[in-house]
Amino acid sequence: MNLQLAARFARREMRGGIGGFTVFLLCLMLGVAAIAAVGTVRSAISDAITAQGAVLLGGDAQMSFTYRFASDEERAFMDAHAVRVSEIVDFRSMAVTREGEAAERALTQVKAVDAAYPLIGEVALDPPMPLAEALASRDGVPGAVVDPVLADRLGLVPGDRLRLGVKEFAMTARIALEPDGATMGFTLGPRTIVGTADLEGSGLLEPGSLFDTHYRLLLPEGAQVETVRRAALAAFQDTGLRWRDARRGAPGMQRFVDRMGSFLVLVGLAGLAVGGVGIGAAVRSYLEGRVETMAALRALGAESGTIFAVYLIQVGMLALVGVIAGLILGAGLPLVAAPLIAERMPIPLEIVIAPRPLAEAALYGLLTAALFALWPLARTREVRAAALFRDLGPGRRALPGARLGAVLLGLAGALGTIAVVLSGVPRLALGTLGGVAAALVVLTLAALALRWLARRLSGRARGRPALRLALAAIGGPREEATAVVLSLGLGLSVLAAVGQIDANLRDAIARDLPEVAPAYFFVDIQPDQIEGFRARLEDDPAVSKVDSAPMLRGVITKINGGDAREVAGDHWVLRGDRGLTYSAAPPADTRITEGAWWPEDYAGTPVMSFSAEEAEEMGLKLGDMVTVNVLGRDVEAKITSLREVDFGTAGIGFVMAMNPAALQGAPHSWIATVYAEEAAEAAILRDLATAYPNITAIRVRDVVDRVSEALAAIARATALAAGVTLLTGVVVLIGAAAAGERARIFEAAVLKTLGATRATVLRSFALRSALMGAAAGFVAVVFGAGAGWAVMVFVMEGDYRFEPASALAIVTGGALSTLITGLLFALRPLSARPAEVLRARE
């Protein structure tokens, strides 16, 4: 093999143009651009989170506690290590305006701050004013600033009064920017900011009330954050301390961005797989047009390896062009859309060209191009000088040889390994790549089955010439059907899976949850209020059920005397504090799977009932000792029973329940769920909120709406990425139609010569296209249903129900897209004159 000679031939042959590689370039460019664009945006957000860590957090470090303020020892530690400390109290409450029947109520997330807040950054208000001025008292009434959503919901304008608990505040401004808002996590209500001192007498921060305290620390210049962190955890880890610092100022946001970005990159890889089908088809079509050139070279003594190298060099150069074009497009689109993206982000964002995501996209593109182009390229070795070289097809080997097969497997393995390693979510990457590979196999088998079925049925379509011609063309030796079903089918499969999952999630929320979910969650019910609370609901005919339970919050710190995380791993139960209750007798409908509940008058050493599923996941068993830190006090309890806890009903569920004596004297409140008719919800809320202003009511339907909004946003992002995959499939579809145009011209000429009318030929072309598109759509629906079932059952742990509307849209879309494309490329064949065409083929 002479590489220098091959390079010279490749360069000379490419002087004639690359028109046959348009689809090749477009497919590669779109796939690389999608991955590069997602990577560029993700990189910009990650860089912004890192750079803005201290601003997002509101300090260099944060020490947080649940249900309590920091102790004197903890405050002394903070003062010793920080130059300034700011205390924040975070909790939910009901914001109430007006009185009596005219009263309006809305759930709000209250942030109570001190004079030092914010340590870093600045709260922007509308109308503009310093936060201290906005929170200052006027005529004895303290000020409050509220989120615009809450202001609009309650019809508040500056100067209006609102109540939090039994304390009245004056709304002075709307919140335009909350510098640390992105780190406060998922909230059920819009924000209200007040002064902590002004909450005195509100009844909202009573013993046992649900609240979190966050202490922001501004460290001295040159201080080592890691050193302070280790000292804090060594001194206070067993008291329920949660630590966060500016190195990961917004871990929840970072985690979501990483996972969502990784998933979209994987969807982009599905688009590259679709493009790979087009790449293979484009290379095959191009080489079919170069058979005579290859034969001439062989006749002049060129080795098969040299001919292979000629076209490998050409494809390699074009692959580089396609990848570079994709990188330019993928980096350029986020730069153009930067103002729109930044406007929707809660943090300052600067989108710049990032080398790493572009390098990843280029690597994916080059590996995909090599994987799908090598197979048709290898067939150049089979060209012989002594044959009639009209094409590469009939009689030639369909499967690659052993050496090429090993190379292709190696490329596929490298592509998969890189995707798994770079994604950061190995299980999701493996699942997605496995799904794409399975889809390609299923679609290939479906294309072969379609061609076989078309050959069998074509002979039975007598009397229907258009249908018979269409079936004969689908089942013929040309590979148009395979390319169409593969490319269009994979793009539609992604959309079908997204459609099925989205429809099932919406259906579960809209249909299933309201049947089992309570109307309201009530929290912060004080022990002396629970009897009056129950009395209001007992005789209400619209109320079908009321569940209530005492609740505390505790952090599991030790298991059998050892560190809990070292014993049970990073289980979700160990990530922060968890709900804890007590009960003398098993609550109604409790199903104990192992062990037994304690006697009602039990007053011995603390004992505990643990959720059976979580216990199995954590490796806990009967007799194990679990240490729970409750309000700074360690309570070690022995597991004496395991019980079923269903967290999917939206009712009350606790991982841990103890005997009452174990928690005797610990300040706590009660929670309750109320199951009632929707028409009675307003009256229930009015009566209870009026009687007990400190109680917070969480309307379950509002929570469902928030979850639905989040799911809809994720579905839109996924559908957009899937749309790029489908667009690539359409490009491949157009390429397949364009590549077959010459054959259709000859076919139309022969049919006209034999007496077929233009209408018959047109119907034949239309039926051929529609049948291939419908087949691709049908397979996509089957595969999408399977993927949807797997996600709903194994990932979401829910039920699956086939959604016919989405499926019908997919099949119809597949048929229409191929029909329209086929008809567009049928114009020239229909207008061609048979005599001119047939003479040219002599």
From TrEMBL:
Localization annotation: Cell membrane
PANTHER family on file: INNER MEMBRANE PROTEIN, MEMBRANE COMPONENT OF PREDICTED ABC SUPERFAMILY METABOLITE UPTAKE TRANSPORTER
Name listed for the protein in its UniProt record: ABC3 transporter permease C-terminal domain-containing protein
Keyword Protease included in the entry's annotation: no
Annotated Gene Ontology cellular component terms: plasma membrane
Keyword check for Membrane: yes
Alphabetical UniProt keywords: Cell membrane, Membrane, Transmembrane, Transmembrane helix
